[in-house]
Write a structure and sequence with these properties.
about 30% strand; SH3 type barrels; five-stranded antiparallel beta sheet; about 280 residues; single chain; BirA Bifunctional Protein, domain 2; 2 domains; seven-stranded mixed beta sheet
Length: about 280
């Protein structure tokens, strides 16, 4: 070695148990081969473990110049809507987040979780998985939760009026033994997704997300309304809206409106419910 050569830092090779199940290079290559330019722009990272892929990306938005998909086998601080924890297990779940910049202000993104739900359901159909949508951001299979969606946003400071969104998704491939008993509820799963390589599954989902985010930016939620309604898990069924343990509305779920509010026909008349901390349940 030449003692006059400049010192260079070489990162240590990860230990075997730190190698992610997803090959970022293979996944990136599949996205780069897409016919759609927005899909080709998506960069990819894959890690064996992290706290939360959503938090990871939210902290890095200022340094991003293109969409970034970050996949983690295990998330120790994964969470869903209202901060509820999301269990992730490398063998039985897919957890990932996509950072995407919209040339729109935050108020123009009303209803984005519903559009993302449509994109995810349509992507799953490629693999023969038939799922439905529960307002505002759950994906069900046979009435049990198959996937959850969490979207967080931040202003793009260098570009006033532009907004970054981080779309986080947790998807069940299998149900670990004993988990349903522990949680005291049924859990949806899509074992069909274990057959193809994970890179292929993620490429299909990421492609659907990218295409749908472009469509949402151009046309808004209105472009997704018929498709969301076709996947509405509770359409025509008696439901309850619960706010902090109290039933605030009860009636028949009919659909969503142009800004993503849930529409319910009650005895007192039509009601439009905005997503927040409220919960939607089937009326028993």
């Amino acid at each position: 070695m030449d003692n006059n050569s400049p010192l260079q830092w070489t990162p240590a090779a990860p230990a075997a148990d730190d190698l992610p199940l997803v090959d970022a290079g293979k996944l990136a290559a599949q996205l780069a081969a897409s016919e759609h330019a927005p899909v080709r722009r998506v960069a990819v990272e894959a890690v064996a473990r992290t706290g939360s892929t959503n938090v990871d990306l939210m902290l890095r938005l200022a340094g991003l110049s293109r969409p970034l998909l970050r996949v983690a086998d295990r998330q120790s601080a994964g969470r869903g809507r209202a901060g509820r924890p999301w269990r992730s297990d490398p063998a039985s779940t897919l957890t990932f987040s996509l950072a995407w910049r919209f040339e729109r202000p935050l108020q123009a993104l009303l209803g984005l979780p519903l559009a993302v739900g449509v994109a995810l359901v349509e992507a799953l159909q490629v693999f023969g998985v038939r799922a439905q949508l529960k307002w505002p951001n759950d994906v069900l299979r046979d009435g049990a939760k198959l996937a959850g969606i969490l979207i967080e946003t931040a202003a793009d400071v260098p570009q006033p009026g532009f907004t970054w969104a981080v779309v986080g998704i947790g998807l069940n491939l299998d149900v670990p033994p004993g988990l349903e008993a522990e949680l005291e509820r049924s859990i949806g799963a899509a074992p069909e997704l274990r057959v193809p390589p994970r890179e292929t599954v993620l490429a299909v989902i990421a492609s659907a997300l990218a295409s749908s985010l472009v469509e949402f930016e151009r046309r808004g939620l209105g472009a997704f309304l018929p498709r969301w309604q076709a996947c509405h898990a509770y359409a025509g069924q008696a439901v309850r809206i619960i706010d902090h343990g109290t039933v605030v509305h009860e009636g028949m779920a009919t659909g969503i409106d142009a800004v993503g509010r849930l529409l319910i026909d009650t005895h007192q008349g039509p009601v439009a419910v905005m997503a927040g901390d409220v919960s939607l349940r089937l009326a028993s």
